[in-house]
Amino acid sequence: MTIPQHLRGEIKRPDFLVGIPTIGTLAVDVKAKRIYQDAILIDAYEHRTLLAFETFFNISVWFACFPPDAPHTCHLFLNRSLAGLEAVTVKGKAVAAVPLRLTWPVDERRDFMAALLGAISLR
Question: Going by C-beta distance under 8 Å and a sequence separation of 6 or more, which residues neighbour residue 116?
Answer without folding.
Answer: 18, 20, 26, 28, 62, 76
